[in-house]
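User: Can you recover a sequence for this backbone? Please restate the input before giving your answer.

Assistant: Of course. Working from this structure:
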C-alpha cells in the first residue's frame, strides 16, 4: 500500500516537472518570437533570421518535426531567406546569396509558392554569375510550379525573367512569346487601375507599373532582334509612356527605358533610314540622363549591340 502511494507521488511529481519544462520552453519560444519582431523593426534582418532559426529548432522539439506549427515557421523563415538573398545580390555577396537560397529551397518543401519565388531568385543569382542555362532551368521549374497553383501573386514576373534569359541565349522568338505572355498577365492584373476599364481611383503600385513598363521594353527588344522595327519602336515608346505617366520622368526606370528607346530609334534609323518613325513625345530630346537609383526584381533584356 505504501509502495503504491510512493509510485503515485512519483508519477504526479514527474508530470508536474514535465509541465514546468513545457511551460519554460513555450516561454522561451515567446521570447524568441518577440525578439525576432524587434530585430525586424530595427532593420537587423540577418540577426532576425538567426533568431527565427533558433525558434524553428525549438518548435521542432516542442511540436514535432512534421507539425503544422513547424511548417508555418519554415514558410516564414524561407521568406526571410529570400528577402535577405536579394539584398545580398544587390551587394554582390554571391556566397551569402547562394547559402541563403539553398536554405530557402529546403524550407519551402511544402510551400509551393515560396519554392517558385526561390527558383526565380536562384535564376537571378545564376544569371548574374553568367550561368544562363542554369538560370533558365530554375525559371522553367518555377513556371511549372506556378502553372499548378490556383493563385500566384505576380505570375507575370517569371515569364518576364524567362524572356530576359532566353534573349541572352539568342532564343529571341521564344523570348518574345514569354514577354508577350507577361504583358497579357500584367494588363489583366492592372486593368482596374490602368486603361479604359479602370474602376479604382487609387493609382497602381509603383513596383507593378515598373514591371509593366519593363515588359513593354522587353517586347521591344525582342522585336528589334527579330528585325520587326515598327513593332519594336511602338513597344519601346509604350514602355516609356507608362513609366513616365505613373512613375514620373525622373524615376530610374523611366530614365533607363527612355535612354534605351532613344538608342533604339537611332540604331534602327541607321539600319533602315526609310523606316517610318514617330516622335518619341515627352523626354525625347535624345540626351541620356543618369538613373536616380531604384531597383526592381524584373529582368530588363539588353538591346542588340550596335
Amino acid at each position: 500500500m505504501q509502495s503504491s502511494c510512493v509510485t503515485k507521488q512519483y508519477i504526479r511529481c514527474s508530470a508536474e516537472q514535465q509541465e514546468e519544462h513545457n511551460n519554460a520552453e513555450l516561454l522561451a519560444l515567446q521570447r524568441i518570437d518577440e525578439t525576432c519582431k524587434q530585430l525586424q523593426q530595427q532593420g537587423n534582418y540577418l540577426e532576425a533570421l538567426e533568431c527565427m532559426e533558433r525558434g524553428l529548432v525549438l518548435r521542432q522539439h516542442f511540436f514535432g518535426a512534421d507539425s503544422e506549427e513547424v511548417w508555418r515557421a519554415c514558410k516564414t523563415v524561407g521568406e526571410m531567406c529570400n528577402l535577405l538573398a536579394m539584398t545580398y545580390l544587390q551587394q554582390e555577396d554571391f556566397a551569402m546569396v547562394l547559402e541563403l537560397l539553398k536554405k530557402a529551397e529546403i524550407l519551402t518543401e511544402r510551400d509551393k509558392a515560396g519554392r517558385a519565388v526561390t527558383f526565380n531568385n536562384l535564376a537571378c543569382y545564376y544569371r548574374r554569375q553568367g550561368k544562363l542555362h542554369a538560370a533558365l532551368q530554375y525559371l522553367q521549374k518555377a513556371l511549372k510550379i506556378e502553372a499548378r497553383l490556383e493563385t500566384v501573386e505576380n505570375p507575370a514576373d517569371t515569364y518576364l525573367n524567362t524572356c530576359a534569359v532566353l534573349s541572352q541565349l539568342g532564343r529571341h522568338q521564344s523570348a518574345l512569346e514569354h514577354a508577350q505572355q507577361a504583358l497579357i498577365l500584367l494588363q489583366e492584373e492592372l486593368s482596374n487601375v490602368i486603361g479604359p476599364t479602370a474602376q479604382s481611383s487609387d493609382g497602381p503600385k509603383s513596383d507593378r507599373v515598373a514591371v509593366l513598363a519593363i515588359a513593354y521594353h522587353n517586347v521591344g527588344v525582342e522585336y528589334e532582334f527579330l528585325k520587326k522595327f515598327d513593332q519594336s519602336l511602338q513597344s519601346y515608346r509604350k514602355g516609356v509612356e507608362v513609366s513616365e505617366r505613373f512613375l514620373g520622368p525622373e524615376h530610374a526606370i523611366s530614365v533607363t527605358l527612355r535612354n534605351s528607346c532613344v538608342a533604339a530609334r537611332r540604331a534602327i534609323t541607321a539600319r533602315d533610314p526609310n523606316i517610318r518613325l514617330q516622335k518619341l513625345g515627352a523626354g525625347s530630346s535624345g540626351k541620356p540622363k543618369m538613373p536616380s537609383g531604384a531597383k526592381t526584381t524584373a529582368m530588363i533584356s539588353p538591346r542588340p549591340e550596335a
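That completes the design. The two ends are 99 Å apart (CA to CA).
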